[in-house]
Amino acid sequence: MKKNFSIAFFGVSMALLLGACSSIANAPPTNTPARVSRPTIVSLTFDDGDDDNFAIGPLLKANSLRATFYVSSGLVGSKGYMTWDQLKILQDDGNEIGGHALTHTSVRGLDAETLKRQICDDRTNLLDRGFKAVSFAYPFGSYDENAKKMAKDCGYAGARAVRGGPDTIPPTDLYAIMGLPYIVDDTRLGKIERYVIETRRNGEGWVILIFHHVCDSCDYFSVKPDVINGFIPWLAGQQSKGNVKVMTIGEVILGNVSP
Question: Which residue segments constitute the domains of the chain, with CATH numbers given?
Fold first, then answer.
């Protein structure tokens, strides 16, 4: 009798267990939304205002992209540099024109008066010419705490350095925004693309690419035309897929990043 009771009890227990499992399997999904990944932010920056940078404007426009051009106002219009009219065309197409010190002088270790002249007078020149001058880039990526404070006191909303990137959104330090290493003469297309791909793979981040000359081996700090001509359309394609969002430095630091 006890044996039959044990068998009956076991059967009832199994039936209840199987019923519970069936209920769980058939339960309706919860309303907890899945995590939505935001696009990786990419900013294209061109330093120094070299005259060969102007040719990038039509390429950017054709691909619906914008960049930040950092110029030293005291050198604008001189040999090898873009003119004020060329900079105005770039700005009218949606690109950002930022400061890069009056005469492209390293601002690290400067006395207060010289530092103010290099950073503040430079921004005043840009403002007087009709440029918004939202952000600043330290020449040679060199800065100290006095330079950071001066960039802020002169009215810049942020300042870009070199190396340490990719940065975060919002950046770790608005006056030491971290870019990736300089793009130089031997930087291949695949390497630039990997900067973007790997940042996206590792999570949300801010990829800031730094270019100088655009030419075929005219300078070590240059990008070859075939490399940039391949990268810009590739980046535009990534943006159209929703993988990245290309923004100027000013757009990001002013908080215009949609969640």
Answer: 40-253 (3.20.20.370)
